[in-house]
Amino acid sequence: LMAATIGFVSGFLVADGSMLTAYNNSFQKYNIEDGKFETEEKIYKNQQEDIEKKGVTLYENFYVEKVLLNGTTLRIFKNRTKVDKVCLMKGKLPEKTGEIAIDRMYADNNKLSVGDSLQSGKRKWKITGLVALSDYSALFQNNNDTMFDAVKFGVGIVTEEAFDTFNTDNMICNYSWKYGTEPKGETEEKNVAEDFMKVLNNEVSLETFVPRYSNQAIQFTGEDMGSDRMMMIILLYIVIAILAFVFGITISNTIHKESTVIGTLRASGYTRRELILHYMTAPMLVTFAGAVVGNILGYTVLKNVCAGMYYGSYSLPTYVTLWNGEAFVMTTIVPVFLMAVINFFLLKRTLSLSPLKFLRRDLKKRKQKYTLPLSARIPFFSRFWLRVIFQNVSNYVVLTVGILFANLLLMFGLMLPQVLNHYQTEIEKNLLCNYQYILNIPLNAMNEEHKLESLMNLMYFEYQVQTDNEDAEKFSAYSLKTLDSEYKTDEIMLYGVKSDSCYIPLEDTDGDEVLVSKAYSDKYKVKKGDVITLRESYEDTQYEFTVGGIYDYEGGLCVFMPIEQLNRTFDLGNDYFSGYLSDSEITDIDEKYISSVIDLESLTKISRQLTVSMGGMMYMVDGFAIVIFMVVIYLLSKIVIEKNAQSISMAKILGYSNAEIARLYIIPTSIVTALLLIITLPLEKSLMEIIFYQMMMTSMSGWIPFYVSPTLFPEMFAIGILTYAVVAVIEYRKVRKIPMEEALKNVE
Questions:
Q1: Which of 99, 154, 523, 705: CA 20 to 30 A from 589?
Q2: What residues does 65 pair with on adjacent strands?
Q3: What whole-number percentage of the chain has pLDDT above 90?
Q4: Concatenated DSSP letters for 78-106?
Q5: Using the 8-state DSSP alphabet, how is residue 697 labeled?
Q6: Alpha-carbon span 501 to 436, nearest angstrom
Q7: What's the confidence (pLDDT) of residue 226?
Q8: 65 or 258: whose pLDDT is higher?
Q9: Could you give the strand order of the β-sheet that contains 206-211, starting from the edge strand earlier in sequence?
């Protein structure tokens, strides 16, 4: 168990450190862009020259999107050789028309491999390779999506000749840029990007503008990687602490069996220090051996397992395993130190008795003045079981800790799929509306240096995005961020809606009060009457809002207010709006004016992606929990039987059968185990709620509510009982093997 635990944590830390280094190095190795923008039409050569005079280099990175027969969307680029280079993971790059290399994670999620074919309409491609695109380590189709989706969306590359055969009408004019001199820090990068956007607005008609610091497809992976380290380290130390106490109890049992020998040695002049060192040798050797074997497993087999978890979540390039000094200290030095300290104090306490007490086999510090009286009305077997339980209270205390910890792991593994399914169900029940259309307002309509031209462009845009859909209702949107804290910063969507909105009723608010979504309320513990403070991204400007109520919506961290209030607060203009809320699909607006559509499928991306990326890990956690549970119960029940070996042997001499003896000594542990399984469940639920909240606050943006299914506790109890049944069979065999002559040894 120790080797497996240290191996798993070591493998995780090594894979995490190596892959994070590979990710950080990829910016230079693959020449990842400093930003990208899209234009309505291709930039002329003289425009590009004028833009590049400002100290940047532009690269064409055009793409087309194809809906495939399997119902997914594939974004296709020509092969990149200068910027955002491609990492080939398997197979080979396309060499002719009709060949394609696709993202490795998208291929895995859709069960595609080298040699398979993809089809969109009449076009057909043969997959020649699996790749990782350096600017798509997280597969975000739209930069303002709450979560990437590597199931329904993927990227791929074809040859330049094959790309030229695509219809130019469907081609997106996407350009990447690199600065001549890299800005230092996010603030300087933001200022440089804003200046560059003004330059572009003067030269071209911008559709979108995404600097690297706000590009989720690039940044999300780096921000998320490493967030699970502390959880794994805590897992290691809890297991080591449990095993240290198990070792301590095992040693105490050994000392009890060898007490006369210890008394003789102490009387012969052996010091307490020598005996402590002697009895510490076994656990220290086992710990050291476990650490060595664990680290070997960690750097070989388990490293690949843990790397597979990352590869199941992100489209990362290949990595090289790096020596991790911090991982060595945490998985070898610290466990050995923990084991030494815990066992030293346990042994020091036990061996502090006088030699005479050891010779008399009296190892109790305090003389027990009386035995707890048990009524004669209690049946014999019941009284005997109670005596066994009272004699082994210290063992059962450690058993309680072991069961508590193992069941926490088991609860996490069983609960997460149920939480994700419940989240999907709740979103389906509580949609704001069936469709939220976020409009893609051209950047040339917001050029402050050419106000007249901007006004004309804005008027033209507003004319183009009018709809005859009766369900459509205009709304404004603005994005702010939570204040910096020890938790992960969240992006909060502010909705401005009509006062008489049929989708989001605002009757509960007075004056300038706002509604917050239930997801926001649950995550940040906000209630009616509180004042929330949000800030602009990369700026010090802050805004305060008074909460007038909680709106039952789990689909995002949102704030709702009248459209007039939002437009006034952010100086957007009286007639400004960002999109439409609608219960039916809007078909009379050109797709190029629609930035994104938020519907049920997009809102459930989080749960869908977590199910894909963490599904395998949950089975591993469940298995690990069962192993810990089994080992701890086995060790402690083994101690109970060994401690009573002489009595068991005497019972055999008196004619008791193996089944009757097992009933005497195994059933008490069975009763305690069953009771502990039931008693600890409410405590585990409370602890898991705290752990889940901390995990959500520190490890991911957004919010998924905590949920415990009615079937969870019965499942956990059944797994616990079945696991213990295996241990009970093993212990029964141990009872059978105790010989009758054991009763003749150590006769007092």
A1: 154
A2: 75
A3: 16
A4: EPPSSSSPEEEEEE----STTEEEEEHHH
A5: H
A6: 14
A7: 61
A8: 65
A9: 56-60, 173-179, 35-39, 206-211
